[in-house]
From TrEMBL:
It comes from Piscinibacter gummiphilus. SUPFAM superfamilies: GST C-terminal domain-like (SSF47616), Thioredoxin-like (SSF52833). Residues 1-77 form the GST N-terminal domain. Residues 82-205 form the GST C-terminal domain. This is Glutathione S-transferase N-terminal domain-containing protein.
Length: 205
């Protein structure tokens, strides 16, 4: 398998962590997402991550990829097969993905070179960051005093939340979520010690 992605993408990081936790071998191909001619050969949406199968078929959207990948190996089951537990884990993932999506959109509005300063919308950035702050607060409330997001076991929910918090540290370091939400800090401290998180940490700068 080949995973097409970018080191700065929190969604790519989520997939890479899942692949590592599942102990699956794959080729990682770095991609410039602005080079549409290249990425669109594999994914018509022009987005990463994109998983290319041995037969050339492409699987895209991080949620679809991680669900598929979790079925490839019995090692470290990350998504419950059915019922309320499965729904809980996928809802955590949706919440964390929402944080990442809003943060990415806010950063693009603030930094994209294709737009002048006069064209940037502070109102749009504020709207996206409101989603970030509300969702991080919801994460803290949902976590409570549990060891992991979905109870006592490490799951995709924790990977997604860890990637969301890691992206905030990477691109929005001024947000002091640790002092506001000590339970998230405690969870994050456990996650960043896992080799899968260490090996996929966002690059400096």
């Amino acid at each position: 398998m080949k995973l097409i992605g970018a080191l700065n993408s929190p969604f790519v990081r989520k997939v890479r962590i899942v692949m590592a936790e599942k102990r699956l071998d794959y080729q990682f191909e770095l991609e410039d997402v602005w080079n549409r001619d290249t990425i669109m050969k594999a994914n018509p949406l022009g987005k990463v991550p994109c998983l290319v199968m041995e037969g050339g078929e492409a699987v895209f959207d991080s949620r679809v990829i991680v669900e598929y990948v979790d079925t490839l190996s019995p090692v470290g089951k990350l998504i419950p097969d059915r019922g309320r537990e499965r729904t809980e884990v996928r809802t955590w993932e949706a919440l964390a993905d929402g944080v990442m999506e809003a943060a990415v959109l806010a950063r693009l509005e603030q930094t994209w070179a294709g737009r002048s300063e006069a064209q940037r919308s502070a109102a749009w950035v504020s709207r996206q960051m409101d989603k970030v702050h509300a969702s991080v607060a919801a994460m803290s409330q949902g976590l409570g005093d549990k060891a992991f997001c979905s109870g006592t076991h490490f799951s995709l929910a924790d990977i997604a939340v860890g990637c969301a918090l890691g992206y905030l540290d990477f691109r929005f370091a001024h947000i002091d979520w640790r002092s506001q939400y000590p339970n998230l800090e405690k969870l994050d401290a456990k996650l960043v010690q896992r080799q899968s998180f260490i090996d996929t940490k966002h690059p400096a700068g």
